[in-house]
Amino acid sequence: MSNILREARRHEEIAEQLIPSQARPLFHLSSRVGWMNDPNGFSYYQGKYHLFHQYYPYESKWGPMHWAHAVSQDLLHWEYLPAALAPDTLPDKDGCFSGSAVELADGRQLLMYTGVSSAAKRPDGTSDDRQTQCLAVGDGVNYEKYPGNPVLTADDLPEGGSKVDFRDPKVWREADGTYRCVVGNRPADGSGQILYYSSPDGFQWTFESVLAENRNRFGLMWECPDFFQLDGNYVLLTSPQDMLPSGFEYHNGNGTLCLIGSFDQESKTFREEHDQAVDYGIDFYAPQTLLTPDGRRVMIAWMQNWDTLSIASLKAPWFGQMTVPRELSVKNGRLYQWPVRELDVLRSGHVSYENVDFEGELTLEGVKGRTVDVTITVRPGEEGQVYQKFAVWFGQDDTYHTGISFRPYESILKIDRKFSGSRRAIIHQRRCKVPQNGGRLTFRMILDRFSVEVFVNQGEQVLSATMYTDQSADGFKFLADGKVIMDVEKYDLDME
Ligand code: FRU
To answer: Which among 36, 85, 97 is the best mutation to test ligand 1's pocket, defined by most ligand atoms within 8 Å of the CB?
Structure first.
């Protein structure tokens, strides 16, 4: 083991002791110490779920990238394992960037990641990164970098492909035992494309095709691709940088894109039929999926926005959390997401109200908490008389609240954490358009100390946001401008 990795492992063991468990999310994976970004190597291996992530253990800010590692039996109770990768070889001396994991035919686990190494400086002091794809092989705890690294270099790019932006391999095994991967890249037009490679054994890789092209439609560079079959469709997920907003579908900055279509086996290209945002909230990026042993496609993402890092304090000993793992499906040509069913096991303390008729403000006995699972259905209080606005405030006390509000006339659902305690002038609101349904709306909210995830209408749309409100603010308040009737179902979420 290199000294760099040994030092990271030593540091995390000592530093994590200073973080009480209450200072972390309950069931969302957070960084053991220091900084977390993208999920990496999300996989099922030897009877456990493995989740690695982009990691800088020494400070709560981005630095030379390592891979952290955690395992779980149920995707919710996570156990930290020692850091898996450190930037300690020539091709990855400046960082082990994002990548994925797959089981090899001989039972070992293969990690495929992007090695970053800066080229020699130019006379003006600038230099370009080189991004290549590298491998490490291990037993589920310890990994050895492959001596033949890098396995994909600038030589494996199509004409015009950037060797500076060439990253985030997502690898999988085909039914015939051969391997494929998709990698993000920037073509000559400066936007993004997804490259498709094949391998007989996981070690020797060949360029096959440009799977999909951005052509400057959805942001610029396409990061962190994932490609899989789901409910008779092919789904391509990617995280575009530098998005321009488009209606209420796509927002500015780093975004997430879901393309649904088919795969042409001849040309090895993707035929796009539908596009949508993956998440409509504030904090969601770089999702990655796995297939569970019982055949579910489960997605997890970094619950953070690159442009709002200052939501949390740099002095905090950990930074970054994952979303709740979500089961995916395609219905009516759209991507649906739902919290993994394992979450239901954490439920206790059921409180339910039906047909609550009100206007103005309301609180309900027993509906409160910061680790809760709450489903709300709202409908007009009078036949043919649609209310102006309905809102629920949570993480609420006299000073603070975060809100979800719905304006049925505009069909706009908004998340707003302006009053969540942040002292920074960053994005605190996001809006999305939901289907018109005569003022009827159902949504399920998952709260876990420092976040909220809102699953709208059976998971047709999801809004995720972090909120670092003091935990003592645990109220819920309902507000209606006009008469509404609502049902509320609440569970506490506990981990024993
Ligand atoms: C996405 C990303 C990836 C890269 C990693 C570096 O958030 O920029 O493209 O591999 O983060 O930490």
So the answer is: 97
